[in-house]
Design a protein that fits this description.
single chain, alpha/beta, 17 helices, globular
């Protein structure tokens, strides 16, 4: 929902003092704030300190004192094709095509993230996440605007309640960078907004009245767009609700603008534990010294950091790339959490892979590296049906007294199945699984019935 210009000015301390058009609405910052001071053989991996961004080549004239100011990066985001062409070679035809794209799906890239792009490589995996592609509109009829049907599951404006014990608060659709694979890409077409005080009050009232809610996820856009002071106002009010146990923040700032993760923010977050932060590295080249330091500051403040990648064609759709990414994350003390299959969002079809690519990547990682380095491959199902995890099929057959399993090397192992007489009720609860080796069918035993109390909560 779009807010009025007056309400927006009251809520966002990062914006200009007068209303800006959508493409520049957050280009200026308030003057009253001080700037923040395997199956595939993996090549030898470089630590972050040796992954040199192109800052010296592109922004050598910017002194460190300015470069380290996250607000400078935000004010100076590249938001037009003309600006972009000063940093990345674009033919006249390419510029014309990209201008058509940005009429539908705007462009915004921080100077920091732009410095990670190899300007001479049209297939650069960092570039593909930030620079528009004509395929966004030439294939734009494929997919849906809101495949997860978040609007249907919005119980009040900005609050999605899909699973019983958790809710998603969408505070804004503003981001430091407009990622080309964004799930909420639909929002870019209708201007940029931040929730009003009245909308936030309504979200908190809903949470307060439902004691089943124990987990609140703060997302956007990117919620760290808000000033630290404004963010603390919201987090402190959530923490006052006694039945809320966990607060999670979804943000890509550590990846696209790590300077935002400053001491002021980390000190504030440390006061409201437990807070978990999920970030979004998609490629190992994004794990720079600045990004690793941002994650370290969060961890030292008592904020665990998980990573949620999206499987993207031509960016991270190989075992080798995923292995290097996940190893780099672990070296930075970040847990590889989810690998999402790219949602069926209009304007992203050129970046989507077949589902089996993700399954094969997990199979190529499992057993060839530590389990800590292997994320869970997940599809967020259409129509708000929730997340399901997909794994390679290691179960070849099961019988009353024996399972036949395939290990990561392809060896077939027979595994004795303990007697189930102590749990006869499971036979009536669990469906049969087909037996591909032709032996007697039976039901799975030891795991019980998962999520038997799972329901969807609709408005």
């Amino acid at each position: 929902m779009k807010t009025s210009a007056t309400a927006m000015k009251q809520q966002v301390s990062l914006e200009a003092e007068e209303e800006q058009p959508p493409s520049t609405i957050s280009a200026k910052l308030a003057a009253d704030e001080e700037p923040p001071s395997a199956a595939a053989k993996v090549e030898e991996e470089e630590p972050p300190s040796k992954i040199a961004p192109n800052r010296d080549r592109v922004f050598s004239h910017i002194p460190d004192s300015v470069w380290n100011d996250w607000k400078w990066h935000f004010r100076n985001r590249i938001t037009t094709v003309e600006e972009l062409s000063k940093f990345i070679p674009l033919s006249i035809e390419e510029q014309t095509q990209l201008k058509w794209v940005t009429l539908r799906y705007p462009l915004a890239v921080t100077p920091y993230y732009l410095s990670l792009i190899n300007p001479d490589d049209p297939d650069d995996p960092v570039r593909k996440q930030a620079v528009p592609s004509y395929q966004e509109i030439s294939m734009g009829s494929i997919g849906r605007e809101d495949p997860l049907e978040e609007k249907r599951d919005s119980v009040v404006t900005g609050l999605v309640h899909r699973y019983p014990d958790r809710v998603l608060m969408v505070l804004t659709n503003l981001c430091p960078m407009l990622c080309r694979h964004c799930t909420r890409k639909r929002e870019w077409r209708h201007g940029f907004w931040v929730r009003t005080q009245a909308e936030i009050d309504a979200m908190l009232d809903y949470i307060r009245q439902r004691t089943v809610i124990r987990d609140v996820i703060i997302s956007g856009g990117d919620p760290l767009i808000l000033s630290t002071t404004r963010l603390e106002e919201i987090i402190s009010r959530i923490r006052q609700i006694k039945h809320v146990e966990i607060i999670r923040i979804g943000t890509r700032f550590p990846v696209v603008l790590p300077q935002r993760i400053d001491d002021e923010l980390c000190s504030m977050l440390s006061k409201y534990a437990p807070i978990w932060l999920n970030t979004h590295f998609n490629h190992y080249r994004e794990i720079t010294p600045e990004a690793a330091s941002a994650c370290d500051r969060l961890l030292r403040s008592g904020v665990p950091v998980n990573n949620q990648s999206v499987l993207l064609r031509g960016i991270n759709d190989s075992v080798e790339t995923q292995m290097k990414l996940c190893h780099g994350l672990l070296r930075s003390k970040v847990r590889p959490y989810y690998l999402f299959h790219c949602d069926e969002v209009q304007g992203t079809e050129h970046l989507r892979t077949p589902v089996e690519v993700g399954v094969k990547i997990i199979e190529g990682m499992r057993g060839h590296t530590s389990g800590l380095a292997v994320p869970t491959f997940v599809i967020d199902l259409p129509k708000g049906s929730g997340k399901v995890s997909l794994q390679p099929n290691y179960v070849l057959s099961q019988a009353e007294d024996e399972w036949v399993l395939r290990n990561y090397e392809g060896h077939i192992i027979r595994y004795r199945n303990p007697n189930n007489q102590a749990h006869p009720e499971l036979d009536a609860q669990v469906p049969e699984i087909p037996n591909i080796l032709g032996r007697k069918k039976s039901r799975p035993r030891s795991e019980g019935v998962r999520d038997e109390d799972r329901v969807f909560v609709r408005p």
